[in-house]
Amino acid sequence: MAVDERTVVLLPTYDERENLPRTLAAIFAAQPTTDVLVIDDASPDGTGALADELARADPRIAVLHRAGKEGLGRAYVHGFRVALADARAYTHVLQMDADLSHDPRDLARLLAACRAGADLAIGSRWTAGGGARDWPLSRRLLSRGGSRYAATVLRVPIRDLTGGFKCFTRRVLEALPLDEIFTTGYGFQIETTLRALRLGFRVVEVPIVFTDRTLGTSKMSGRIVGEALVGVWKLRRALAAAHRAPRGSCT
User: Fold this and answer.
1) To pair with 14 at 20 to 30 A between CA atoms, which of 102, 120, 184, 217?
2) pLDDT digit string (tens) for 174-219?
3) Domain range enclosing 28
4) Looking at the domain assignment, is residue 161 inside a domain?
């Protein structure tokens, strides 16, 4: 880590009691100097209480308790605000799943991409060198096809628009109109990337291999993906009112 670099990983949780200790241990093994903000949406299984217990034992962990489950997008926006207001003045804010589907060792590669000039680095399953381990063909087609469909509708050359493993530089989050973000589920990943591009930021895809969770229950469903894909038309119309043409660049 660069001397002046201060990082925080946002970790939204809902019923992740089994996974949380393993995920935090893996994050700190990969990035010992990072902080982690656990964002818990009142998990019925006691994830929030466990997060508090872990935070008391490790100053690198903070916990944001939310009143209930309001969608991934709202959890992240809340986390962005907390991170930006933190006195530690984080230079990079990363987001990842809490179930080890995202390999914490790849945090270093996302940070390296930002050090090399990216404003937003996306862990991409569908760029050269990426993939999804142990997924059935139907799920790969749904995810990859959905990203391609969204990219076509929105006219951006990003291969993995629905991926949730990202590294934002502080300047991107400070520029994003957080009050205007309206998507909640997988559409949130699409919207934040598109808004960053429209604001002229450089977006880079870093190949990753996504691994299915081994503990707990997946929150992903065909309905959620379907909502995100229908939502791209709403997103296109909404942003067209404020920006007449994309100005960002991507690699």
Assistant:
1) 120
2) 999 999 998 887 789 999 999 999 999 999 999 999 997 555 455 5
3) 7-243
4) yes
Nearest to 11 by CA among 116, 111, 88, 104: 104
Tell me the helix, strand and coil percentages in the chain, rounded to 5.
45, 20, 40
Contact between 47 and 15 under an 8 Å Cβ cutoff? The reply is yes
Domain count, the chain: 1
| Residue indicated by tokens 């080890």 | 100
79 within a domain of the structure (yes/no): yes
Residue (of 143, 159, 243, 227) closest to 193 by Cα position: 159
Give the alpha-carbon dihedral of 124, 201, 73, 229, to 10 degrees.
-60
The residue with tokens 């050269």 is 128
Q: What is the pLDDT of residues 128-183, one digit of tens each?
A: 999 988 877 777 777 777 888 889 999 999 999 989 999 999 999 999 999 999 88
